[in-house]
Specification:
Layout: H1 3-12, H2 19-99, H3 104-124, E1 127-129, E2 142-149, E3 158-163, E4 166-168, E5 171-174, E6 176-182
Parallel strand pairs: 2-6
Antiparallel strand pairs: 1-4, 3-6, 4-5
Helix pairs in contact: 2-3
């Protein structure tokens, strides 16, 4: 470049760029665009993977929920069948007793056998009768329906069982309905 050109350039305030510099500055935005495009493609791939993973997790969760509902229903049915099975024999014996022609004493003996069978079925399920007659009244397992005035028995001793109470292991199913002793000569605890 001559001095005349240089002077003219200085006057206009524009710098004349060499052809190599023009080419480099033009490719810079192209490289930036391709870099951003590559990053965008990578993010789209990650998004697609995450959406696929989410869909799989939702499907697994739905399957687990359905499996849990089915297992719960199966467990309930299994429990009911194991609970009912011992009582089917009791029902059979009641039906046989109703068809039988016998004396009142024979019928009573049959009912006592059926009651024993029922008690055995309950025992097999860990259901026990609540202790009543002769025991001290316990409001946690007994429900008093009345009292009987007496001087022969200690105050609040259970004298009569009106309805049997039951518990399964230590949990009370229903309290026993009882009548208790009322001994005015004795102070209760």
């Amino acid at each position: 470049m001559g001095s005349k050109d240089k002077m003219q350039d200085e006057m206009t305030g524009q710098e004349i760029l060499e052809p190599e510099m023009v080419a480099d500055s033009a490719t810079e935005p192209i490289h930036e665009v391709s870099r951003v495009q590559a990053e965008l493609d990578q993010l789209k791939g990650e998004r697609d993977q995450l959406l696929d993973r989410l869909a799989r997790l939702q499907a697994e969760f739905d399957n687990a929920r359905k499996r849990e509902v089915k297992e719960r229903a199966d467990a309930r049915d299994y429990t009911i069948s194991n609970t009912v099975e011992p009582f089917l024999g009791v029902m059979d014996n009641f039906q046989l007793a109703l068809k039988a022609d016998g004396t009142a004493e024979q019928l009573r003996g049959g009912v006592e056998l059926i009651l024993k069978q029922m008690e055995d079925a309950l025992k097999g399920l860990n259901v026990q009768a609540v202790e009543t007659v002769g025991a001290q009244f316990d409001p946690r397992i007994h429900e008093a329906l009345g009292s009987i005035e007496t001087k022969e028995f200690p105050d609040h001793q259970v004298l009569e069982e009106i309805r049997r109470g039951y518990k399964i292991r230590e949990k009370l199913l229903r309290p026993a309905l009882v009548r208790i002793a009322a001994n005015a000569g004795q102070v209760s605890d």
